[in-house]
Amino acid sequence: xxxxxxxxxxxxxxxxxxxxxxxxxxxxxxxxxxxxxxxxxxxxxxxxxxxxxxxxxxxxxxxxxxxxxxxxxxxxxxxxxxxxxxxxxxxxxxxxxxxxxxxxxxxxxxxxxxxxxxxxxxxxxxxxxxxxxxxxxxxxxxxxxxxxxxxxxxxxxxxxxxxxxxxxxxxxxxxxxxxxxxxxxxxxxxxxxxxxxxxxxxxxxxxxxxxxxxxxxxxxxxxxxxxxxxxxxxxxxxxxxxxxxxxxxxxxxxxxxxxxxxxxxxxxxxxxxxxxxxxxxxxxxxxxxxxxxxxxxxxxxxxxxxxxxxxxxxxxxxxxxxxxxxxxxxxxxxxxxxxx
Length: 340
Hints:
Layout (H helix, E strand, L loop, with lengths): L5 H9 L3 H25 L9 H17 L5 H13 L3 H29 L6 H4 L2 H39 L7 H13 L1 H4 L1 H28 L11 H12 L9 H14 L3 H30 L5 H8 L25
């Protein structure tokens, strides 16, 4: 689709502003730290004062695994590794990842709705009349209905799930005991959604996470100096689309991210094919640079070989060689070493 633009795109990438690109990388690092802090909040119902060093390092390792291994393996690597380090329930920790995804979906939906309500008129008439725009509106309507129906149900499960399980447990056959134990652990990991105040704080933290992503995206687009008219509020449209692209099962969302980013810049913001392709490639690299660099460091610190990542997810726990770090930049102890 964009193959004919590859030579010109390569030249365009070389003209990018290095200082602005570094600022974009800085916001990607901030986004990872904010994710760790939000995870700590969600885990408070499972264990109080989870080590921030462990939270940050396992977050980075999880995203690193998803960057180099297909099928988003890091979504399992991250909670399993943290559960091993902190001595907490694996099922409950995995459940908090599910809560994170719910909060992320709500936040990107809020971003998209905000753009559609306040800034859709910024787009040219041709863009709003395009098939891509009409498809986006249809997708937004479906997503809105799903959230309106799904969020209350999730709150009910988080609030009353344990009581429901207790009731079933008293009447169920012994062969269901294991399944009920797993269900109880999963519901306990959703505890943050059961308390309205904590849920609101978690949603606010999610907005900060995605604003950091948006800021990094804006600085990345601006760094390209392609002449694309891209005010900051445009990230409220682009970032939700990129969230869909990066969900592709390829390593790091490669391919899906690039196609959706380039198409969005071309269809909605009037970028040329060359500028759109160059910007998509640079944005993707800026988003994975801190993940890859820190990922290798934290793996080395933890004694966890890269080749063990997929095995860790498949085996349901860390290999024996992968003990918790014994120190590091975070001033942590044997449980909370490393920057996180």
